[in-house]
Each structure stands twice: as structure tokens, then as C-alpha cells.
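ok so dumb question maybe but i'm new to this and my supervisor (M.) told me to 'just get the structure for indole-3-glycerol-phosphate synthase' and walked off. so i did the thing. is this what she meant?? sequence i used:
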Amino acid sequence: MVANDLRFTQSKSVLKTLAMNSFKAIDEGLYEINTRNERNYFNHKTISLKNRIRSSSVVPLITEIKYASPSKGVLADSKTFRVEEIASTMESAGSAGISILSQPYLFNGSITNVLKARRATTLPLLMKDIIVSDTQIKAAKTAGADCVLFIKSVFDRNLAEKDLETLIEYASSIGLETILEIHDIDEFKEAIKLQRHYSHDIHIIGINNRNLDTLETSLDTTINILSSVPKSGNTVISESGIERPEDIAGLLEVGTDGFLIGTSLMENPESISKRIKELTSSR
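this is what came out, is it supposed to look like this??
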């Protein structure tokens, strides 16, 4: 698997590269699950990530299992730090939910990792990927995920095979919760309008502090958006670049409901439990 070099490097947009890698993974059959050898979780009763965030008595963290990223390269060795052990540790330490990267290229992820996590934890699972097709959504449900994430700009730039509304409705129809991810104020306003229209299909709005064209990250992204636009009752999480209790404290002040944290945990997998406990007590 490629961890450090972008595929399709003729593309100047990292986001476009990520979307094209998803199609490549689909074409290669990397989202296919052999249900003869693996349990089929398609009828698994959904565990609500939104409810876990809303009801958490500590700072709600969605802690992420990812072995590489486009910005950092390889983070951890999957053979040394196994998905099952990490998921169990995250649950014991107090995570509200677990995100698992299933994208093979640049993230060293796998749909099998979702299956492994499902066997190891009773927490709600987010299958994190660059979703461009219902093939990935069906795979998420079959692997035991409870939630999937849609990046709004992927659809705004016509990088997916179907429109956003169609894929969100499909995900919801098979029992998956959905996160609609945005990056700027205009996208946030549009996401709120979409949520009003698809109130039963869009469960969480995610603000990604990382620009997926440049990979630059700033927590001011969430702060500026939530300081400028009312949440209108939506559950809003902040994603990327969150490392310290002070980061969480500042984001809580502007109304953030939950936090997706991956890189800062996976860079030091031996300290995951300690770090989660530290961050969940940041209130």
C-alpha cells in the first residue's frame, strides 16, 4: 500500500486525488467482504453515535484508528498495534465512539479493520472514508459500522458517482447514521439547510479543520464558523488538529459538541489510553 506518495499526482487537488483513489479501491474489489468467512453485520442494530455524543458525561471523543495519513505518512504499524486491541483500549479509556479508516491508499486502511473493530467493541463505529459510491456504504453496513461520513466538497465538485442527497438517503435507509463534513462558513450554512430538509438522514455536521486541497490545518476553522453561524440545534463535531486539553476547551466555548481525534493518538499508540483519559476530562 502507498502511504507517503500521492497517487494520481497529476491532480493539483489532494481532495481529487483522494476521490480517485476511492474509485481505484472500488474497482480493485477492496470493499468486497467474503461473508462466507466473515460475519455479515448488515442486520446489526445501529448504535447511535449522535446519542452517545449527546449523552456523554465526559468530553465526547470519537477516537480514530488510522495507520497512515496523506499529511503525516505512516503513523503506526498495524501488525504491532492491532485494531482489536486499540478498539478495546479506546472503549475502556472512555471514547464515545470509534472511527476506523477503511481507505487503503494513503491511509493504509481496510474494510476488514471495521470488521475487526466491530468484534472488539460495543461502541458506535464510524467507517471513515472518501465516500464516492454506494458500494462503500453497503460495505460499511455489512462490516458492522453504525455511521458513515460524507465530505460535502466531494459532491460539490462532482467527484462522486451519485449526488450527495441520493447517497445520504441510501445510507439512512439501511440504518446508518451520517456525518456531513464541511470546511467553511458557506458550506456550513448549506449543510444546515440540507439538514432541515433531510432531518432524519443527516445526524451530525462535522467541521474539518484541515483543508483537503492543501492539507493545512487550523482550529480557527471551527472557531470562526461556530462564532459566526448558529448551530440551529445541530450536533456539531470538530475534526483534525486537536491535540491538547486547551484545544478542546477553546472549541467547547464556541459550542462544539464532540471531537474526532486520530493522528495525535496514533502517533503514540502506547499512550492512547492515557491521552484519551486526559482529553475526556477537558471540560
